[in-house]
Structure formats: structure tokens, C-alpha cells
Amino acid sequence: MEELYNHNDLIDGCLRNDRKSQQALYDLFAPKMLAVCMYYATTKHEAEDIMIEGFMQVFTHLDKYLGQGSLEHWIRQIMVNKAISNFRNNNKRYGYDIIDEQVEIADETANIETHLTAQEILKLMQKMPEIQRMVFSLRALEEYSFKEIGQELNITENTARVYFMRAKNWITEEIK
Amino acid sequence: MKMNIKDIMEQMQETPSPRCWESIASQLPAAGAAAGGSAAATAAKGAMSAGKLAAIIGSASAVVAIVTGTTIAILTHEPANVPQSNPEPAATVVVADNTEVATEDIPDITEVVPAEAPAVAETAVITPNKTEKEADEPAQNTQANPTVIAANPSTAMVSTPTQSTPTATTTSVSPNPSVGNTNSSGKNTSANATTKHDKPVAVSEQEEKSENDNPWEEAGYSRPITIEIPNIFTPNGDGVNDKFVINGLENCEKKALMVKDRNGQIVFQSRNYDNSWDGGNLPNGTYYYQFSYSINNINELRQGAVLIRR
Q: What domains does chain A contain, in order, with CATH numbers?
């Protein structure tokens, strides 16, 4: 409860454009949000760029946050959207092949169990092709549906499934 | 103890570098300005649309280049990938050529070509024995587009025989076959384009005649020294591109290299670089180099970006 109270204070401060509140809000969420951005970026620099853009949107659109759902979730959604648009901007020239192969989806969730640390998993993820990583992160960590992923990344639903299964199989192999 | 991948990732935290908050703070509207929020948003939108406009202009010129590129390809019977691989320089030079032709209103092909030469010389004069400023293309380019290089000598010859003496201007038009030089191929193809538009048949005849000439030796010069700086290297220990290797470094007398990261911090510095930098422990990412060197006591500075990817 105390946390919620603090958030409300912070939000009020940010809406008044009080620099201290803004920095407090940033300090509170930045480490987590940078981690989220890292799921979608190849380098830390790139992730930081996405995060900066995301926080700019958070601060300029904070009045749109109506208190439904947690503030962290709202900010995270903005970060993910920024990461997706960053991906689209980087890749608008290349069309991705439409994959026709039908995949048997045994398990569409990312129930991968491992001893690895987050950093090690992140390193593995950064080795994947960009599109595959996007699909994997959106599905496994953000729990988007394949339909949503397809719409966001401008690929078909089936293609998204194929990329996800490839990523999952690959990562399962790697962490053995 | 095994854990689900999602739970592991949820616990992950990453400390952002100080530049992040600095960047955000500098973009935020000044403290206390209550109505500043929307104003800043509008300003940002304005900047965005300006950026988009630039992007559209950029892509438009690329389209022009490709269109002209295909016409050239059809007329000269060169492989179509020759001009397309270097769309931008072709576009700029073609525009310059068109104005040149339009103002002088040249009816005859023999006059077109000499008129062409000064126009080209303005865009890039490459004196032999001096380093090529335009050779900014990375080594990969040379390997990736062998057709470009192979096609250059034949297309380049078009202007040479029509001029009575092989002057410095002539040499600047002809490319060094060993260099994957964007500008020279752009120049050559555009020179072809304008002449071809007038009389395609005449030019292809000239092309055949001049195929065996070596423009450098004919003009009495040795081949130019080129410095090729890569734009990526992969220090992952696989023996391929593990170090930041500048081709042609052995020809330099002075060779000072400085590399900065995106925050402007110097991450590598050498007064006498020996192609040995492997990126150290730097994280993957883009870095910016400044390479100052001298050849025949002519000082040059080259700068650009290099990507480290392991």
C-alpha cells in the first residue's frame, strides 16, 4: 500500500513537472526497464537508447495514465512498444520471408528450465537473429499472443510461431 | 535449482549509465513550466516530421539512382548490379551532369565527353601518389562486389581516348581497379549515362577500342595508395577479422589512431598503430575512430564508425 502511495506522490510531482519527482520516478524504474529493453536490443547502448525514448514518452504522456493497472506495467508497456518501433525502424527495408512450413506446436509456452543466470540467458538471446529474438522475447517474456506478435512485427501468425519454435529449440539446446 | 526462464529474466536489473538520465533531463521541458509538456511534444513532433522528410528525400534520390542505373545497364549491356550497388553517388553526379549538359547544350558526342571531364573533376580530384579521400568503403565492399570493380576499367575508358592528351583530369576519371571506390564507379556510370543518351552506339564502339589500355600507366603515374578502414570487426577468436586491421597501413609514415565510445570516452589510443587492436574488453557496439596518417608528407585525417560484434 505504501508503494502505491509513493507512486501517486511521484506522479503528481511529475505532472507538475518537478524535476526531483521525475528523477525519483526514473531512478525507481530505470534498472528494471533497462533490463526489459535489453531483451529487445543487441547492445546495451541500443537498449539505453530505447529506454531514453521510452521515459521521454512516459514523462510527456503521464497524464494519460489513469491508474488502471500498476504504474510499472504501464511503463513497461511503453518500453516494449518503443522496442518494437525501434525494431521496425531498423528493419523496414528488409522483408521477412513468409514461412510456409507447418510446425507442430507441442508447447507454445516458454517453459524452459535452466540453471543459467539472467546475464547468461541474455548473452544467448543476443546471439539469435534479431527477428527471432523479438518473437521469442515478446512471447516468452511479455506473453503476447502469436496473433499480436504477427501484427506488431508485420509477419504472419504462422511465421511468428515458426520463429518462436526455432528460438525455443535453439535456446533449449544451448542451455543443456 | 532450476528455474523458469521467464522468472529468471524478471529478476534481472541493469544499471543504466549516467548519460541516460542526462539525456532525458535535457529533453524534458524546463522545470516549473507547467504547460511546457505539450509544447515540447509538439516540438518533438516537428523534429520528427523533419526527419521523415529527410528520409523521404533520401529514398527518393535512391530511387532516381536505381532508375538511372537501370537505363545505364540497358544501354551499356553492363550487369545491372553495377550502378545499383552504389546508388547514392550515382544520383548526385547524374544530377550535376544533367545541368552541365543542359546549360551547354552539346549536340555532338565528341564534345560531350571533354565537357564531362571538368564536371567530374570538381566532384573528386584524386591525384596519384596521394591518398584517396573517397576510399572510405570498407574492405568488405571490395570483396562483396567484384563485378563493380571488374566493370570499372571498361566503363572508365569511355572518356580517355577522346581526349588527345592524358591529363591529370583524365586520370581522376579512371578508377584504380584494386579499389572498391564508390565515387569513381558513380562517376563513370554517369558519364556513360549522358553520353549514351545522345548516341549509344558510338560509345560502345569506343569502349571496345580502349579496353586494353591502362589509364594509370598511360598517364605516367604509379598506382595510388589506398587506405581501407573496416567498419566492423569481430574479436571472437575465430581467426577471422579478430583485429581492427587498416589495409594499406604499411604505406603510412605517421599513423595515429584514437577510438571513442558513444559517450565520447577514449577507449583506445595509439601514436603508432600496428593493426593490433582487438577491442579489449569493450562491449559490443558502435565506436568512433579518428585515424590520422601521412603519406609522402601529406597529412590526412579519416574518421568514421566501427562496429564491434563478437
A: 2-91 (1.10.1740.10), 118-174 (1.10.10.10)
